[in-house]
Specification:
Oligomer: single chain
Helix content: 10-25%
Largest sheet: 6 strands, antiparallel
Structural class: alpha+beta
Radius of gyration: 14 Å
Number of domains: 1
Number of helices: 2
């Protein structure tokens, strides 16, 4: 299972806690990205099988079965999230750059918030 949180918060620092296994939730992944401008993204994923479960981004919760790619913008001062169904299992850094060039829905999401800046 792989999920991707793609954000417009640049610079700063990121931290992922080691995965934890719990009886109730299965595997739990938690992370935080803090931008140099103070904006942040907190994320948490809980899944028993790598396909079903929940992803919470800045207090908004999503069903992992509906897609594992999360586009996140906080540029407006509020957290805006779009969940997409994309194959994230094989994505690496270079693949994300290629996806950014070729996926109109991803480009449109970030461009729409950049215009409101």
């Amino acid at each position: 299972m792989a999920f991707v949180v793609w954000t417009d918060v640049s610079g700063g620092s990121s931290a992922m806690l080691p995965p934890v296994t719990t009886k109730g939730e299965g595997f739990v992944f938690e992370g935080r990205h803090q931008g140099s401008d103070g904006r942040h993204i907190d994320c948490r994923c809980a899944t028993k099988d790598g396909r079903a479960g929940t992803v919470t981004i800045n207090d908004k919760t999503f069903d992992l079965a509906q897609g594992a790619l999360f586009l996140v913008s906080t540029i407006s001062g509020q957290t805006q999230v779009r969940q997409l169904e994309r194959n994230t299992l094989k994505l690496k850094g270079e693949d994300l750059k290629e996806l950014a060039k070729n996926d109109q829905e991803i480009r449109d999401f970030f461009v729409s918030f950049a215009k409101t800046k």
